[in-house]
Amino acid sequence: MTHTSNKLSRRTLLAGLSAAPALATAAPAGAQTASVLTAAQQAQAALKDAKGTKLVLLGTAAGPVPGRTRQMTSHVMLSNGAAYVLDCGLGVTDQYARTGIPFSAMKSIFITHHHADHNIEYGPLLIIGWIQGMHLDVSAYGPPPLKQMTEDFMRAYKTTVDFWAEDLKMKPLVSVNVKEVSKAGLVMQDENVKVSATIVEHPPVKPALGYRFDFKDRSIAFSGDTAPSEAVAKMAKGADVLVHETMYVPAVEKYIREQIAKGRPVKFEPFMAHMKADHTPIEDVGRIAQEAGVKTLVLSHLTPAIDSITDDTWRAPAAKNFTGEIIVGKDLMVV
């Protein structure tokens, strides 16, 4: 069952999206909340009738913290029937499925950096995706040692893949096409999109990447995890959409003090020094978006990802410096 192209006909894509609500509803009782189902149905409806390139925020929470209402960082862009995944935090496979986009549409996966909330489900996405119809010529891009990580994961799951391949008479998934990205510049280009990368500041992680996707009808830039960076503003110059990581410092300070009071073995000053060296306060996010001249700023990778923080609380500090549209990201939101 070898495929040489991932491009889907509009009929095939719409058929997959039409079938998705029933599949989502059939999940075991208690596996999905009403809000997740509603968000999934809204995403499916938006994609079913979509014209042009669409971005879906699969996970909008920062940090490797399980059990929250928001999933860890991941995104998918759908253009001309092809799906491009950016980051693979915990939950990416389920969230991708909830959009109704067929796994056979997945063409490429991009990783910004090697922290668990961005890469922990990269391997599982490949295996489950393959079982669900992902094409064998999918490609992956990201910082070293992505090639070794991919090879190691495939080696670990060879027995599992071989069992499924024998049972279902499928050609086994042996590996994927991996290109490691270590510097700024062009990453790849195909019939739908040109992708470029920049180096961002996320110590001690090196390299950590931001990406820009220039589709025929719109451009979408992602900061990745970074301290305030002029490289992001330069990369995102004139983009339609900038998805930027966002830290609300007062809430982070309150949250960590509460965690320390509960016995978490961290110290306040070192923790906050780390956060300020690695992440971008929301006021700076607005400034960077204004400098880049983007049309729409999407606040995501929210730190802290606490539901009690209102959209207005997130939006107001960014709006001090940015005059364009500001969207507070939510899981399964279509932009």
Short summary:
This protein is of the alpha/beta class.
What does this structure look like?
- With 335 residues, the chain is α/β, with parallel strands linked by helices.
- The chain has a single domain, classed as Metallo-beta-lactamase, Chain A, CATH 3.60.15.10.
- The protein has twelve helices and 14 strands.
- The chain has helices at 10-25, 34-48, 92-98, 116-119, 122-131, 146-156, 158-168, 230-235, 249-261, 268-278, 282-292, 311-319, and strands at 54-59, 74-79, 82-88, 106-110, 139-142, 177-180, 185-189, 193-202, 205-215, 219-222, 241-247, 296-303, 325-328, 333-334.
- Strands 6-5-4-3-2-1-14 form a seven-stranded mixed β-sheet. A seven-stranded mixed β-sheet has the order 7-8-9-10-11-12-13.
- A hairpin with a 3-residue loop joins β9 and β10 (219-222).
- The longest helix is centred in the N-terminal third of the chain and has 16 residues, at 10-25.
- The model is unreliable at 1-32 (pLDDT under 50).
Low-pLDDT windows of residues = 1-32
- The helix tally amounts to 12
- Count of the domains: 1
User: What's the arrangement of strands in the largest beta sheet?
Assistant: 6-5-4-3-2-1-14
Class from secondary-structure proportions? alpha/beta
Q: C-alpha Rg, in Å?
A: 19 Å
What is the strand tally?
14
- CATH-derived architecture: 4-Layer Sandwich
Q: What percent of the residues sit in helical stretches (DSSP H or I)? A: 25-40%
Shape call: globular
Mean pLDDT metric: 91
Query: For this structure, what is the CATH homologous superfamily?
Result: Ribonuclease Z/Hydroxyacylglutathione hydrolase-like
The profile of the biggest β sheet is: 7 strands, mixed
CATH class term: Alpha Beta
What is the strand content? Answer: 15-25%
Give the end-to-end Cα distance, rounded to a whole number of Å. 34 Å
